[in-house]
Amino acid sequence: MAQPAETVRLAEAVEGPDLGLVRDLFREYQQAIGVDLCFQGFEAELAALPGAYARPAGRLLLAWRGEALAGFMPRLDACASCGAALAEGRPVRFDPSHGGLLCVACEPLGGGGLPSLSPDTVAALLRLQRGGLAAAASEPLSPPAGRESREALTRFVEQLLGRRLASRKFLDEVGPLLAPE
Ligand SMILES: [Zn+2]
Q: Please, are residues 87 and 112 in contact by the beta-carbon 8 Å criterion?
């Protein structure tokens, strides 16, 4: 088992210093993708946080390892591109560059090489987001859901950090909880 200091904890970022950390992560993300996002109102979005990410439509979750920030979670409760509701009962595409799941209208033709998540996997990841890693440990994912989750989250973290090796370390710690042997 991991030592307590290695435990990953998810906490909602609602105000003050936590939102400052979210701004730092978003700026790192912009640098990592090497695209100037000002055309999307990026600075205005940062200033207005939590803005569109506020409840009830969204949530900003920070992942902590010990007292260190590990990253933030993808959007799984609505389309990460347009905010529309997701189709129920059919696989949905996970788009790391938009930071979450896509609705049918935003999905690229033929899937665009994006990972596809089954309804079971989406439900399992939402449980994980709401209940933290304790939920994954007490209610393990099925092997297929674990595999799909791992691929989607790997691509998400790689996109976010832009550094394959650093992100692998995070996933090596989280991975066993997603797909226990
Ligand atoms: Zn959409």
A: no
What percent of the chain is predicted at pLDDT more than 90? 12
Strand order in the sheet with 116-117: 100-101, 92-95, 116-117
| Nearest-angstrom CA–CA distance, 93 and 113 | 9
Residue 58, number of CB atoms within 10 A of its CB: 17
107 CA distance to ligand 1 middle (Å): 7
3 Cα to the center of ligand 1, angstroms = 40
Q: What is the pLDDT of residues 71-96, one digit of tens each?
A: 567 888 889 889 899 988 999 999 98
Cis, bond preceding 56 (omega within 30 deg of 0): yes
- Spatial separation of the C-alpha atoms in residues 112 and 90, rounded to whole Å: 17
Residue 5 CA to ligand 1 center (angstroms) comes to 38
pLDDT tier, 165 (very low <50, low <70, confident <90, very high otherwise):
very low
Using the mean position of ligand 1's atoms as its centre, give its distance from the Cα of residue 101 in Å: 8
Give the pLDDT confidence score for residue 91 in this predicted structure.
93
Give the up-direction half-sphere exposure of residue 77: CA atoms within 13 A in the CB hemisphere.
15
- What is the Å distance from ligand 1's center to 45 Cα? 19
Give the model's pLDDT for residue 168.
56
